[in-house]
Amino acid sequence: MRNFLKLILLGLAVSQFGAANQDSLKKISFQSEWRNRYTDRTGDDANNLGNKGFKGSNRNRSRFRNTTSGTMKLSDEFDMDGNFRILRNQDIIYGKPSTRTSEHELWETEFSLTKNLKLGNLDTKWNLGWENKTNRARAEKTSGSYKTTGASNEIYFGPSFDLKLFGQKIGTSLQLAYFDIKDNKTGDYYLTGSKLARGKGEGWGINLNLNNSNDILKGKYGTLSYSINLLNKLRDIRGKIAATNEEAKSSVYLDYVTNLVYTTPSFAGFTAFVSPGNEYEKHTAKTGYDNTFTIWTGIGYKKSIETNVGTITLNPSVKYSALERYTYKNKSTKKTIERNELRTGITVSLSAK
Q1: Looking at beta carbons, which pairs linking 272-277 to residues 24 or more positions away fall under 8 Å?
Q2: pLDDT band at 353, cuts 50/70/90?
Q3: What is the pTM of this model?
């Protein structure tokens, strides 16, 4: 908590400095979360199905996630917004019985510039950004320094806007993209860079994202809402497949997520929720898919503090996946496992005036 307060004070200082130079901080957020995942994996009848509780012997992954994100108002740069997001996952993978088998981390770094433009009757937001994802692993599996095992980059440009379809407002984002992948990263392509000649590849793509969300019911007993997000990423890569020496073919990555969320009314700052949801993932260049059905429950607390420069918000929470049923299918295999995950964390944010 002390580190969060230090970061907030730094954000306040940046805001004051930016105001004197016309550029200014709009918002900044820090999130820290601890995640433990469990599945049925001990005993003679263990089959990775069913909820067997939080036994240490059933734990298969611990993850410590830290995310910093924010937006700057760039008044001197055509009145654009500058956005950033830095994420770090630190993972510990457990074997049976509850022994550490490997440790690795994921870094995601994203910077973007956005500008609102009105084109006729259409309000658009144009986005130019760069995203890097890097995997690193312990040199000796659970000890030693980290070494890079894969990396991907994506540069994207395009507009976001709202469309009316069957009386519904559809949030739409359309982007052209350049990407490259190396070693064990895919960049949303259906192969990793290690499967390509020279262990890497590059190409171009198109990102199309469609989303819709709304309240179904809202009243004194709480809110029931839904969300639908349809992500489509065309990836056309230059290079050959190492195993066959054939030209790598283009593929579309589909990631379709639907959710229902019931949220209770706030009581002294506390709210609870339950949310069933489903995520379907597929690469069109290969047979098979991944599908995850989940039921999340949780409780959170929200406290806002007004200051001279903006609003500081504290939001601790506890979340639990009562059911997470994951199905993987390829040409010859279809496999289903069930997992449970417990998450605890806190978000501290500043919205500047």
Answers
A1: 272/297, 272/298, 272/299, 272/300, 273/297, 273/298, 273/299, 273/300
A2: confident
A3: 0.89
